[in-house]
Amino acid sequence: MISILLAFALLAAPQAASPPLSSPAQVALDAFRAKMDVVRERHRRAGPPESVAGEIARMAELDQTARKSHGVPDTLDDADADAAEAAIWRDIDTLDAANTDRLKALVPKDGWFHNSRDGVQTGANAWLIVQHSPDNAFMERTLARMGPLARRGEVNGRDYALLLDRVEMFKGRPQIYGSQGACDGARWVIWTVKDPATVDARRARIGFGETQAQTIKRLPIGKPCTKRFVPPNAG
User: Which residues, 6 or more positions from 13, have their beta carbon under 8 angstroms from its beta carbon?
Assistant: First the structure.
């Protein structure tokens, strides 16, 4: 099963276009692209996907490969490291946009994927694309479709909770399940949580699978956030 990465949002405006990369930064970008090319070439050699599930699985694999491979060598100085990561994230942003556009064409006519009909993994893979989508309106539409399905067990409750928190955070509102973090300009923090005293009870009801304390321990809360990055989710 492809592991899921929980994306953190930065509380900063997008940076302007960067000048040409230095040689060390370009090497780091090329190394990232080479890892992505390995996956794309394997997909190409396998031929066209035989099903919607297969196509979405390939999209999710690219998503995860990108997020696992975006780091830059510690040997780079700060300027080169920042430039390389910015360039890598431009590639990831392009991938996320392409995945979003394709997923929109694959969503079932009734609005979203059902675990019993389309498969648990297909629903999880599709959710992953939405969770990382640059299209906030698409995220909100998907959230509305997932809600009733989550209550019937046709959507993973944890996936629904993560997407709900993401949407609430992007709207500047307190999150419900306390799953999302943000950079406050210096360190990673948990985004504001509604009724924090009862957050674990809400998590238990939705089937989140861990307490908020466990989430905080797993994520780099309190660590410096001088660079944009996405820490791994152990789920």
Answer: none
